Each structure stands twice: as structure tokens, then as C-alpha cells.
Amino acid sequence: MTTVLLAFVLGASWTVADVLDAPPSSYVLACFGVVLAMIDLRHHRLPDALTLPLGALLLLLEFHRLGAAALSAAIFGGAHLAVRRLRPAWMGGGDVKLAFGLGAPLALSSLLPAAILSSALTVLLAALRRARAVPHGPGLLAATWALTTL
Question: What is the dihedral angle through the alpha carbons of 118, 122, 125, 126, rounded to the nearest 10 degrees?
Fold first, then answer.
């Protein structure tokens, strides 16, 4: 069942990106994002073996605007690191590493909407699961994909 759902979500996100003539980062986010979200939902972990290559690849794809991409990554990741330092129970270290990578394809003007949308998606997930402890990675990934694709 999980494999079917994974294939469906990946295919749907890939198709939307293709129809909208999205940038290459949208396709990378679709591939890595679906897998990372499923892992985080099931195990409450974001493995470095996937988050670090994703961040490097997203930064590499933004080579044409490397300075702005690095600044966006630093701000987005730094904001998540600040939350992690102030309230460690609110966010895991994997979310922070993921946020640094996900900041690269986002424009500076999209950072605040990405933070708000990812938080709203995480709260929605908590409401749907009727749980207090839910992973933040799926919200981060979905928000970043939406803002880079749509």
C-alpha cells in the first residue's frame, strides 16, 4: 500500500511540475521529497544519506544565482536552527539540515511564506493524526515543492 501511495504522489507531483514547466529543482524535490516524507512519517527521522545530497543538489541546480541561493539557504536553515536551539522538543536536527537545503531554491521573498505554509501543513497533519508529536519534514518538503513549482 505504501509503495502504491508513494508511486502515485511521485507521479502526480512530477506531472504537475511538467505541465507547469517547472524548474529542475521541482523534479528533484518531487523525487527526494516523497521518499523523505514517507520515511519521516513512519520513523520520525530524516536520514543524512538523503537530506545532505538533496541540499547539495538543490544548491548545484541554483548555480546561476548561487549567491542568492546560499543566502536563502542560510536564512531558512538558520531560522530553523534557532528554533531547534531555543526549543529542542519542537524540531529535530534532521528538520534543520533539511531546511538548509530547501532554502536554496527559494527566493528571499518566498522564505516567510515557506515557513508559514510548512508550519500550517504540520499543524494540519497533527490535526488529521490527532497527535501532538508529528514530523515537520513533510510540511517543509510540500511547502518548498509548492512554492518552487506553482
Answer: -160
- CB distance 79 to 100 below 8 Å: no
**Domain count within the chain:** 1
Chain-centre distance for alpha carbon 133? 18
Residue 10 confidence class, pLDDT cut points 50, 70, 90: confident
CA distance between the termini of the chain: 28
* pLDDT tens sequence across 24-49: 999 999 999 999 999 999 999 999 99
What DSSP designation does 103 have? T
In sequence order, what DSSP letters do the residues of 9-52 get, joined into one string? HHHHHHHHHHHTT--HHHHHHHHHHHHHHHHHHHHS---HHHHH
pTM above 0.70, yes or no: yes
The three cell numbers locating residue 126: 497533527
Q: What is the pLDDT of residues 131-147, one digit of tens each?
A: 888 999 999 999 999 99
Nine-digit cell string for 122: 504540520
Query: Does the pLDDT at position 1 exceed 70?
Result: no
Task: Report CA-CA distances (Å) from 59 to 55, 88, 113, 131, 138.
Answer: 6, 27, 20, 34, 20
* Domain housing 145: 2-149
